[in-house]
Design goal:
The protein is of the alpha+beta class and 592 residues long. The chain has 3 domains: 201 residues, Rossmann fold (3-Layer(aba) Sandwich); 162 residues, Sandwich (Jelly Rolls); 102 residues, Jelly Rolls (Sandwich). 23% of the residues lie in helices and 27% in strands. Strands 2-8-7-6-3-5-4 form a 7-stranded mixed sheet. A 6-stranded antiparallel sheet has the order 9-10-13-20-15-18, with no helix packed on it. Strands 22-23-24-31-26-29 form a 6-stranded antiparallel sheet, with no helix packed on it. Helix 5 runs antiparallel to helix 6.
Amino acid sequence: MVRKTTQRLMPRRRNPSPPGQYDIYPSFEVGDDKIFGGFEQLAETLAGQRRVIIDGYVGVFWDDFRRQLEAALEGIGIMADWIAVDGAMLAPDDVDALIAPFLGGDDPIFGKRFSGDLRDFFNADKLQAIRPNSESEMAIVYGCGAGLLDWDGYVVYVDVPKNEIQFRSRAGSISNLGSAEPDSPKRMYKRFYFVDWTALNRHKAEMLDRIDLIVDAQRPDDITFMSGNNLRGALGTMSRNYFRVRPWFEPGAWGGEWIKRRIPQLPQDVPNYAWSFELIAPENGLLLESNNQLLEVSFDFLMYHNHRSIVGTAAERFGYEFPMRFDFLDTFEGGNLSLQCHPSTKFIRDNFGESFTQDETYYILDCEDGAVVYLGFQEGVDRDAFRQALEESVALGRPVDVEQYVQIHPANRHHLFLIPNGAVHCSGVNNLVLEISATPYIFTFKMYDWMRLDLDGRPRPINIERAFANLRFEYSGEQVKEELITRPILLEKCSDWELVHLPTHAEHFYDVHRFEIGPGKAVAVNTEGSCHVLSLVEGQTVILETQNGLAKEFNYAETFVVPAAAESYRLVNNTGQAIKVIKAFIKAEDGG
């Protein structure tokens, strides 16, 4: 078993979703004859090259990739001389020593962003000693870091989506960068996030302009590939028009049934779907399509290609980090989320190496009658008593009377709850929350998890100490209703549409608007120097038309982005009913 999941491998060829149905494989058309497939065709493309550098991401099945490409090359009469770059890598014990300061010891979740780069994983002398045989018909160096060599050669980059990396790690079929063997999936993920992905992403950014060929290796026996020039061209077109990342879905301890019912093309043999990762930059990929063939690259490539076109005037502040995220939290017929808070900006920088924190909001896309959101403290709550109740729950298995300490607010469709860092919160049962947030997404300090186990039958980690270093008890009493539950403001109104402002908190660097567009009507929008993250939150479909001449229809609950460089666009209601579209953007005072 090479991957552990019930989710299917993405097909090589696109099977269009029925009209109006949420698309789990959203693709961007790049023109005819741009994407090719199979190792035989890859071999034909490489024929005539004397020196080939095959670099790539952690999670590639390198031995299998070499075996298949070697057979394909021999099939056309090319006997290549292969060199594995990992022969120059530090010994696993030395790698462990290098990265130990960034792994947080025995902490099951948290570490600190690796401050070095990929070259630190290698012995410099051994790396320098790797030279092609001058008599070889074709010399190939391959593996993570092959591009560190100063060879003058044809550069191939092999990418694997982050979700497939996690599915492979859960099956124990891959290991971390420089590791001798697989570890437990959760320990591997922590190392991926804080070390491997950090080092490899810096290297990927440096490699982008050198890539002659990009390969999508998520289907180990059925690869697709395209030229580096066509990849960069596609990224450039996206950066001036629109994009929608490929979403992916995960079950969880509190997960619900809404996603399963509304997206029936997903596997149904799972206990639930807790999350839909609609737009989480560290995780998602982008699908390119040509002649019905699909190729996926990581979202990072788009930011590395031209982050200024994407985020506009906020580029100086955020650099290559895409600042906003959209995801769904599904508790329909599920359970409450854990009671939690997020770290302050100083805390997340000092302890985890992140540049900004997770200030978020809950937009209620759908809910059942009686659904609630837990947010803010009761008036006059006793800090010490609250902490004692939480600690006794962990030590003695004693339930906490959460309502004694935390306020409960009715949840209604299209309400927006504001959750700045330090605010105690969680979604209750029977909500479908569109979480609009700053991008960091694993930095949640759980204080109480309702006495339940995770899907593996183990207690989920509780972080009371970190939570109390960040909790803001001033969010209590009437101030919660005044400051953390937004009151819509009508900004503009005409016969065709209305623009509603859903003001966010002063702590949030992003703001939220909602367009309400009449049947058959349209609204023109200027980006004003900021990227716009949008989602159709009511209605079946909406058409996006960009100033640069591209158009795309999006369905209910789909998230899409218009980069700052698009400058202007139209949202067209092509249906017979009114629709609503949420727009999140960076505030002008924060660089937007």
